[in-house]
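Internal tracking record. Fields below are filled automatically when a chain is submitted to the structure queue. Please do not edit lines marked as system-generated. If the sequence contains nonstandard residues, flag them in the REMARKS field before resubmitting.
Queue: standard
Priority: normal
Entity type: single polypeptide chain
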Amino acid sequence: MPGTFEPLPGGGAAVALDDVEISIIRSLAVQLLELIGPGPAEDASGDPLAELFAEGPSEPPADPVLRRLFPDAYRDPEGAPDPRAAEEQKAYSAEFRRYTENDLRAGKRDNALAVIRSLDALTPAGDTGAVLKLSPEESRRWLGALNDLRLAIGSRLDITDEDDTDRLYRLPDEDPRKPMVMAYLWLGGLQETLVSTLMP
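SYSTEM-GENERATED OUTPUT FOLLOWS
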């Protein structure tokens, strides 16, 4: 089971992680939380429903990682050669973002927090690390967080397609991007095995 998720009887998944792996995943999840940022502040009136109806941003984030995590909803892959069509897509995307981004951010924060909390609750099993056991719901949260972590790292590494991934395999060991590449590939393996445990 080391390094790969396996299904648990009755649902959920388990994986053996050593102390270094636990530290890496936790650190990446904390960095993701910091990048996503806090939720909208509660309305000054103290109305708990204010956050529910708060409008989000209408412009895409400036950070390329956040743009990857929160892409425009309406985009012509060809670049919308018609300027009027491009303006319409921009307006539709702004409207969609205004009403959905806060919820998307909250979901991504919740997933990252679920990862951190489950790692913090682990009981070490000697020098070998620990076995993480996740319920079906926790498994889905982990899957979302692993996907977000890979998108974030992939954005920093300028990965846009499969050819870019192939290029990363050939990086020399002295390349400063190598640790990030190794984390990207490792998280991909974890994500793939977790997906397979959740398949019916």
